[in-house]
Amino acid sequence: MMMRSLPAIALGLTVLLPNAVAADALARPTGPVVLTISGDIEKTNAEGAAEFDLEMLEALPGRETVIDTPWYSGTKTFSGPLISAVLDAVGAGEGALKVIALNDYTAEIPRDDVDEYPVILATRIDGERMSVREKGPSFVIYPFDVDRDLYSEVIFGRSVWQVAAIEVD
Amino acid sequence: MILTATSVGIFASIVIMFLSLEERQKEIDAGIRENAVWAAYQADREAGRLIEAIFAAEQSPTPETLDALLLRYDLLYSRAPLLSEGKFSVAMGGDTAIVDKAAEVYDSIVSLAPLIDGVVGDGEAFRRELPRLREHAGDIRERTQRLAQIGNALNNQARIVSRNQVKQTYHRIAVSVGILTLTLAMIVALLAIQLRQLSRARQKLEAMSERNAKAAAEAEAGNHAKSVFLAAMSHEIRTPLNGILGTAEVLADTPLTAAQKQRLETIRHSGNLLLDVISDILDFSKLESGEAKAEIVSFSLADILEPVRSIMAPRAEAAGLDFDIEAPDVSITTDPTWIRQVIVNLVNNAIKFTASGSVKVAVRLAAADRLRVEVRDSGVGIGKKDLPKLFREFSQIDAGARRKFGGTGLGLVICKRLIEALDGRIGVETSQGRGSCFWFEVPAAPIELQARTPSPASTARAGIRHSGRVLVVEDNAINRQVACDLLMRLGVDAFCAEDGQQGIEAVVAERIDLVFMDMQMPVMDGIAATRKLREMGFRTPIVGLTANAFVSDRAACLDAGMNDYLSKPVTRDKLAGILDNWLSGPSDTAKPDDTAPPMPPQPNAQRVALEAELGADTVANLIEQFALNARDLVGKIRIAEIEGDAVARDRALHTLKGSALTLGFDEIARLATQFGGDEKNVIDRLAWSVEAVGRPEEVGQVPPSDSEHGACGSSVLKSSAGT
């Protein structure tokens, strides 16, 4: 079921996004596009945007965050690239981030959050990739293990799952 | 105390409440999760979107619309676990109804998966199944709506409950804090009140001690003033009283009718009572003011007991009581005056309160160094309830006794003070109707046994005739007169002077054997006069007359060179005692120190003849006249002698001789004739003889007032003062 849904999303996304001009330093995704970054960025691989497939994301510097969350029962291990690494990869400016989910849920993340904390864009839970039904393909995970104060409603609101795009102000 | 306990209790409860609040907060922290209601709404919204996607696919069943439908279902599916997991049920307060509903929603969402998964990739089948999918999605939507509504309602309820709980907790805390604040305020107020009370108490104490010190100083000053006043008053009263009593004594020696004698006795008795009262008050005030000091000396017990016997035996006899003193022959060491005073006082009391029977004084040694004196009577005794009053100031056991016996009620108090001042004890053993035994004990070491010596025949003293020339220096006319009269009764030649200056002149001018010197006098007081006389080389014995008998006064007397002192009032006994000590021995034959005895003028044949002719009354009148004239003449003779006026002297002698012969006073006549050789001696004897004419035993009808001219010789001295 999961395996089936991924191509479906990839397909959907491919349909939605027109063919982009390849940017200089950013490779084109080879798999289904799971994340599109737009706005104040220097590097692109599509028209005005940078597109990523899971391979590309997982190639970036990342982190394993082992935490309890309100969305799952029990402790889970989340892993994926640091958002700061993703932003570096696209040469993002200093503006805040607007994270948009598949269901159009949007949350604003201040740049300080990703600069100060190792916030990741988790692509795996307990080592497994996440389908849309499992809140995939990526999930903004704050390091509750680093700072317990982060465990709050405000941060829960910024913890976007089924991330589809990021806009850099 | 209660406040402190209350505040501690309240504080503890507040701490506990805060802890529980903290616990609650932790629960809330732990329970922070995505809002369950929000999850339900999200699910509901996704379900709605799914239905929209299905409608869109039905109208135009393209691969895009089908993909969109698929994404919608996946999104809805991703939300399903949030509703089924345990945390949802916890967030909803464990309400089973909603948990069941949520489980139903989950089941209905998940149960759609096989259908969708079965048609994915098969566009035709997908399209065919769209109505079923719509129906199923509608069912999901219905359930999610219900879930959202119930969740919202529950959430609202939970919010209210939680808010109320918090409100209650805060209310309780507020109340507790309020009470605690109130308690603290009360504690602070109490402390403030206590502090104020403390400071007020301290101020009060300070003020009180200040007042007390002031009051004490005032009381002391007042007491001192009172004592001084009492001493002065009693002195002032005693002086005239002395005059009254002395005069009465003199009067008693004159022939009187029975009625007169009785009245005179009343005067003397009253006077003596008054004197006792005044003496008591004076003693008491002296003791109060602390001026009286014990004079501890060694003396023979007999020395104080004999006077007691001589004074008290007649009184006891007069009251019809047996009186006896038993005492060992010892010499003891304490204050003799005080011991005697106490014994006299106790005996006096015993005599007063004993109607019949006996009063006995028993003296013995209670220990090797303690003297015990018991005064036992056979009187009415004293009831138990009256005992505490006995030694108290101004109390007599009943008012009747006071009326009957008089007195100040100070006697026993004075005794107690005196004995206590001597470190002794005083007490009484008694019972109503059985008599009393008043006793006291004083330390009297060293006590020495004495060989029994015949006690001085004090009772015989009255009969002793003294001889000598005695000068009384005294400014008070009455005292002077009384002293002179008494001295003359004792057989001596008395001379008077009004102040120290005159006294010195008299001693210089006359042959004086003994001087009684008053202390306080105008011009020159007794001390100064004594000093001067001693400086001038006179060795004549001088006896001070002290008014208040203070120790300091006596010391001053002796310091100034006096040989003795005598405390006023002057009585016959006191004077006799002094004369015994300081004149050259009693002489029953009453002769001056030369060979020629001044014979008491005897009426001779001439007198008898005269009386036969003129009658006894006429002769008595003549003698009275003669007594006056003769004294005047003796005075003139003295003046003339001092002034060296032989003519005047001879004329006076001549006159005197003539009168004496006429009235049969041969001795006087002989002396007047004899004048010339040893003039001084002769004139003294002449004066003595002339003086004797005034004596009642001699002349009979001569009133005592007449004696004041010649015998005292004051006129002589007065005129001699001029030279």
UniProtKB/TrEMBL annotation, chain A:
<protein>
    <recommendedName>
        <fullName>Oxidoreductase molybdopterin-binding domain-containing protein</fullName>
    </recommendedName>
</protein>
<dbReference type="InterPro" id="IPR036374">
    <property type="entry name" value="OxRdtase_Mopterin-bd_sf"/>
</dbReference>
<feature type="signal peptide">
    <location>
        <begin position="1"/>
        <end position="22"/>
    </location>
</feature>
<keyword id="KW-0732">Signal</keyword>
From TrEMBL, chain B:
<dbReference type="InterPro" id="IPR003594">
    <property type="entry name" value="HATPase_dom"/>
</dbReference>
<keyword id="KW-0175">Coiled coil</keyword>
<keyword id="KW-1133">Transmembrane helix</keyword>
<keyword id="KW-0067">ATP-binding</keyword>
<feature type="transmembrane region" description="Helical">
    <location>
        <begin position="6"/>
        <end position="21"/>
    </location>
</feature>
<dbReference type="InterPro" id="IPR036641">
    <property type="entry name" value="HPT_dom_sf"/>
</dbReference>
<feature type="domain" description="Histidine kinase">
    <location>
        <begin position="232"/>
        <end position="446"/>
    </location>
</feature>
<dbReference type="InterPro" id="IPR005467">
    <property type="entry name" value="His_kinase_dom"/>
</dbReference>
<dbReference type="InterPro" id="IPR001789">
    <property type="entry name" value="Sig_transdc_resp-reg_receiver"/>
</dbReference>
<feature type="domain" description="HPt">
    <location>
        <begin position="615"/>
        <end position="720"/>
    </location>
</feature>
<keyword id="KW-0472">Membrane</keyword>
<feature type="domain" description="Response regulatory">
    <location>
        <begin position="469"/>
        <end position="583"/>
    </location>
</feature>
<dbReference type="Pfam" id="PF00512">
    <property type="entry name" value="HisKA"/>
</dbReference>
<dbReference type="InterPro" id="IPR036890">
    <property type="entry name" value="HATPase_C_sf"/>
</dbReference>
<dbReference type="GO" id="GO:0005886">
    <property type="term" value="C:plasma membrane"/>
</dbReference>
<feature type="transmembrane region" description="Helical">
    <location>
        <begin position="173"/>
        <end position="193"/>
    </location>
</feature>
<keyword id="KW-0902">Two-component regulatory system</keyword>
<dbReference type="Pfam" id="PF01627">
    <property type="entry name" value="Hpt"/>
</dbReference>
<keyword id="KW-0812">Transmembrane</keyword>
<feature type="coiled-coil region">
    <location>
        <begin position="188"/>
        <end position="218"/>
    </location>
</feature>
<feature type="region of interest" description="Disordered">
    <location>
        <begin position="697"/>
        <end position="723"/>
    </location>
</feature>
<dbReference type="InterPro" id="IPR004358">
    <property type="entry name" value="Sig_transdc_His_kin-like_C"/>
</dbReference>
